[in-house]
Design goal:
There is one protein chain. 90% of the residues lie in helices and 0% in strands. The protein is elongated and about 50 Å long. The protein has a domain at 18-50. The chain is built from two helices and no strands. Helix 1 runs antiparallel to helix 2 (39-49). By secondary structure, the chain is mainly alpha-helical. The mean pLDDT is 86.
């Protein structure tokens, strides 16, 4: 029972981290449109692709 609870906790944490990463990419894209080229956006997109 503890193992299944732990797996659920891990799955929920991964979902939260994925949502956070998506928000970060969207924020960086918005900054890119406002400022111009940004290498940080490329880093975030590459991490997302991994």
């Amino acid at each position: 029972m503890k193992l299944s609870s732990a797996l659920v906790d891990v799955a929920l944490e991964l979902v939260d981290l994925k949502a956070k990463n998506i928000r970060q990419v969207e924020t960086e894209k918005a900054k890119l449109k406002a400022e111009g080229p940004n290498s940080r956006l490329d880093v975030l997109i590459n991490k997302k692709a991994e």
